[in-house]
């Protein structure tokens, strides 16, 4: 989302774990507040160039901040990151980032800020594979997502993303003890990922397990495939030429016979866009040196837009929008195989939406209150939050496998809502000016994530059985020390999660169908120890060490 805008995003307030924050209720994983008020940047211009051998090989960025006079401040930044090929073969990286912040101050008490940024990015992805495949390829950097086309490397999995964001923020310093902060943000995430699709044809993935030596039944076949993997890129990588040939052959057959068969192979683009509107406000009152009150509200409305489009027919002339798995299992039922009964057997061209198309609407509102106390060598806090979440699915296609009343695929589905309380507390004991011990604990209910709530959201409006809130119990203990030449922290933590849901999708070779597998009433435990130390060495050098031992 931030797209490498390091200089623009460097002003941060980081709160570890459950510790109190003046901006929000907090989270087990901590809270980071990025300050993009233009007046908070050092005035002047800064430029840099960096070289790397990882995802990208070159990065160039520039930052400029200035005082425009009359308490008006401006900050702008730009960055570009590029790689024709990263350390992973067949991958590439093209990214830019743009940032603008404008702030106006009024009488030293009021501040109004506007922040705009976006980071268009395209990158070729890398695949995870089996140890057998890495052994065959002779490299841990093997990537099955690419192959040669006309002598050039072409990646089948290309991510395209841009997330334009606008934030208006307001701060009112009521008096030295009181401050009110509020923000309104709009964010649209255009995110898509391409992938190969195939219809009634062999799997195009070179590392599909049935093609590997371990799946063969004779030693002769095992040796032959092993040799081809080491010498023939058309075996070890995607064979784009073969995919085009399969589609061209079908085109000739179509012209002679007058049939309307789908292409064998196509490149589709899967879109997961997000439109989000957010408002939050926090009021802080430092009543006395010993007591601070923080009150806040937050509201967020987002629409997740899920669909796929045709990226490339790979030389084919058409793609018929039907479900090949349903077609095989229900060949005598022309309705059940349709991805959209309202437009059956639709012929798909490049850029058309097909397969599935639905939105997820989610609204969430929170209110919290917290007290921080300081008494002699003891700091302690307690806080409570109440959260409301509602969501529903909206379908734009009527899938042939989901026409039942109540769990259909088309139209607005049932509205589901959850009310979730949360409480947390903690304390810090200052042993002396250099050593302290802290303890934190939290107990809360959490509404299920909408991505985990549905059995098969691409097809139908059906919830997981017995869907309920997650219950979370978390606690941690830490010891911290600060000395002139070294400082560090050792902590132990444990978190329990009850009534969680896990979803996974996979193709089952035995049943020869795609399976949506859901686990509910799942209980989890996360426990571990973390340690870190920073040591000042001569010649302005610093040695930092960190480690963890954990069991999840």
Summarize the structure.
By secondary structure, the chain is mainly beta. Helix content is 9%, strand content 55%.
Describe the fold and architecture.
The two termini are 29 Å apart. The protein is mainly beta and 552 residues long. Strands 6-7-12-13-11-8 form a 6-stranded antiparallel β-barrel. The protein has a two-stranded antiparallel ribbon with strand order 1-2. The chain is 9% helix and 55% strand. The radius of gyration is 28 Å and the shape is globular. The protein is built from 6 helices and 26 strands. The chain has helices at 131-137, 219-231, 233-236, 240-257, 324-329, 450-453, and strands at residues 12-15, 31-34, 44-51, 58-69, 72-83, 93-106, 110-118, 121-124, 146-149, 152-155, 158-162, 165-175, 178-198, 265-285, 291-312, 319-320, 347-348, 353-375, 378-395, 411-412, 416-430, 435-446, 470-482, 486-508, 513-537, 541-551.
């Amino acid at each position: 989302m931030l797209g490498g805008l390091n200089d623009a995003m460097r002003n941060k307030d980081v709160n570890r774990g459950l510790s109190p924050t003046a901006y929000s209720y907090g989270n087990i994983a901590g809270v980071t507040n990025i300050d993009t008020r233009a007046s908070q940047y050092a005035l002047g211009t800064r430029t840099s160039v960096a070289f790397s051998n990882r995802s990208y090989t070159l990065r160039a960025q520039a930052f400029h901040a200035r005082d425009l006079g009359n308490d008006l401040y401006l900050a702008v930044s730009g960055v570009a990151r590029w790689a024709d090929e990263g350390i992973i073969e067949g991958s590439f990286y093209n990214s830019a980032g743009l940032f603008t912040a404008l702030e106006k101050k009024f009488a030293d008490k009021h501040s109004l800020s506007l922040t705009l940024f976006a980071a268009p990015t395209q990158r070729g992805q890398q695949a995870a594979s089996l140890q057998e495949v890495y052994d065959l390829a002779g490299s841990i950097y093997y990537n099955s997502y690419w192959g040669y086309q006309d002598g050039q490397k072409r990646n089948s999995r290309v991510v395209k993303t841009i997330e334009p964001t606008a934030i208006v923020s307001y701060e009112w310093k009521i008096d030295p003890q009181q401050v009110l902060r509020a923000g309104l943000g709009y964010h649209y995430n255009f995110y898509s990922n391409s992938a190969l699709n195939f219809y009634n044809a062999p799997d195009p993935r070179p590392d599909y397990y049935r093609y590997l030596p371990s799946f063969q039944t004779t030693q002769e076949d095992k040796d032959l495939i092993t040799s081809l993997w080491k010498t023939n890129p058309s075996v070890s990588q995607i064979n784009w030429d073969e995919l085009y040939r399969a589609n061209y052959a079908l085109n000739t057959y179509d012209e002679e016979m007058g049939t309307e068969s789908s292409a064998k192979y196509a490149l589709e683009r899967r879109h997961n866009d997000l439109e989000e509107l957010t408002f939050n406000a926090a009021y802080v009152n430092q009543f006395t040196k010993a007591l601070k009150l923080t009150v806040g509200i937050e509201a967020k409305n987002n629409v997740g837009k899920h669909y796929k489009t045709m990226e490339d027919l790979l030389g084919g002339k058409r793609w018929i929008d039907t479900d090949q798995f349903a077609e095989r299992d229900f060949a005598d039922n022309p309705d059940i195989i349709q991805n959209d009964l309202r437009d059956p057997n639709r012929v798909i061209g490049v850029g058309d939406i097909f397969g599935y198309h639905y939105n997820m609407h989610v609204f969430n509102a929170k209110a919290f209150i917290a007290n921080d106390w300081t008494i002699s060598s003891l700091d302690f806090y307690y806080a409570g939050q109440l959260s409301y979440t509602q969501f529903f699915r909206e379908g734009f296609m009527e899938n042939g496998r989901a026409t039942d009343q109540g769990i259909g695929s088309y139209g607005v589905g049932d509205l589901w809502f959850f009310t979730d309380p949360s409480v947390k507390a903690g304390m810090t004991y200052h042993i002396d000016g250099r050593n302290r011990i802290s303890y934190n604990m939290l107990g809360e209910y959490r509404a299920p994530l909408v991505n985990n709530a549905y059995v098969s959201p691409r097809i139908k409006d059906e919830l997981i059985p017995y869907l309920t809130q997650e219950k979370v119990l978390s606690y941690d203990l830490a010891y911290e020390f600060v000395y002139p030449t070294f400082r560090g922290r050792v902590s132990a933590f444990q978190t329990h999660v009850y009534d969680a849901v896990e979803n996974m999708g996979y193709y089952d070779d035995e049943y020869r169908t795609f399976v949506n597998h859901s686990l509910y009433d799942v209980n989890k435990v996360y426990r571990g120890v973390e340690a870190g130390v920073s040591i000042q060495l001569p010649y302005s050098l610093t040695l930092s060490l960190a480690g963890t031992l954990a069991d999840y």
